[in-house]
Amino acid sequence: MVEKNGSTNHHQTFDVSIDQQRDSKFFDDDGRVKRTGTAWTASAHVITAVIGSGVLSLAWAIAQLGWIAGPIVMILFAWVTYYTSILLCECYRTGDPISGKRNYTYMDVVHSNLGGFQVTLCGIVQYLNLVGVAIGYTIASAISMMAIERSNCFHRSGGKDPCHMNSNIYMISFGAVQIIFSQIPDFDQIWWLSSLATVMSFIYSTIGLGLGIGKVIENKKIDGTVTGVTDVTKAQKVWGSFQALGDIAFAYSYSMILIEIQDTVKAPPPTEAKTMKKATIISVASTTFFYMLCGCFGYAAFGNSSPGNLLTGFGFYNPFWLLDIANAAIVIHLIGAYQVYCQPLYAFVENYTAKRFPRSDFVNKNIKIPIPGIQMYKLNLFSLFSGGDVYNSKENTEVELEMDLSSIA
């Protein structure tokens, strides 16, 4: 087809160019914009997802199990996590590890390998898990923000003011921040937020570790027993041990978002699976090292009376400013961790709604907003209300690809 000026129509050029997109330096083999993730960015995502404020409860978990069983269980769960993760890494592509069909999400992996009712069952479990994590992070962030305000209130009043406060305002504030960050259009583009969250997780873990070491030096002894808590009934001991196992297992859990993280890794060489395996061993080794330090030194400091949150064992005053820094780091970390866990959930909701209502402008239409200094931002109203902007960046790739190749032609 020829235009009025005699030149070839852009659509004809696009038809030729689209066959060459696998060789393009701008697009991957599936037609999407080239992924740029590395082993280090993937490690940041994993560490952000794994090292949560739950690290502060590991001293309590070891207290339930004792000096022998506690560290052994922690190392065992680290090995299980690593082994199962490298198996899951191989499921990113179906068939050939280099040119096979990509599975973009955990549910795609389940669909490719299991199918049938297992897809529905795993989908329900995964997304309910993600919703639960999101709720837990919202509550945990509010608790940390309240701890900062309460410690400063106690400090100002000298302990005379009971400093009662409502957590609603803190949860609403956390939600407002998440609405803003949720407009980041793709998992691949929140690497900087994950990196910041990773740094924050090491900051508050290091503070907890430092305070634990200081407490051990102050006590001039290593507290704790070989078998852990003993001044309880047998039923309470069994229940506490199972709770400890659950806490440690949950502290390593990130399988439900591993594939989504792997989907941010750039194409071979090396293969995505090899890069993700490297990221897995880096992240699991790093988290285990910090878990062992925080859990063991926390237990050494407080013994069988270790608190559920290591930071609360040091009170509000000594030193209250350091605890404020630790709680602030927890809040910042949870902001990033919330995004890492919720991006797959956003993608599911938005993709399903777009397919369910393909003619809805509210769901599918983008509003172009010019922002000085950067590219035109495409705002989707449904994404704004649903909390994310994953759909626009992934499902519309083919349309945007056609526009980009046409303009190049």
| Uncertain stretches of 5 or more adjacent residues | 1-22, 390-409
| Major sheet description | 2 strands, antiparallel
- Tell me what portion of residues adopts beta-strand conformation: under 5%
Task: Please give the domain count.
Answer: 1
The chain-level structural class is: mainly alpha
Question: How would you characterize the overall build of this protein?
Answer:
- The protein is mainly alpha-helical and 409 residues long.
- It has one domain (34-357): Amino acid/polyamine transporter I.
- It contains 15 helices and four strands.
- It has helices at 10-17, 39-50, 58-89, 106-113, 117-157, 168-181, 191-219, 234-251, 255-262, 272-302, 320-356, 361-364, 381-386, 390-394, 397-408; strands at 93-94, 101-102, 366-369, 377-380.
- A hairpin with a 6-residue loop joins strand 1 (93-94) and strand 2.
- Helix 7 (191-219) packs antiparallel against helix 11 (320-356).
- The radius of gyration is 25 Å and the shape is globular.
- It starts with 9 loop residues before the first helix and ends with a helix.
- One of its GO terms (cellular component) is membrane.
- Residues 35-367 form the Amino acid transporter transmembrane domain.
- The chain crosses the membrane at residues 42-62, 68-92, 127-148, 190-213, 279-300, 320-341.
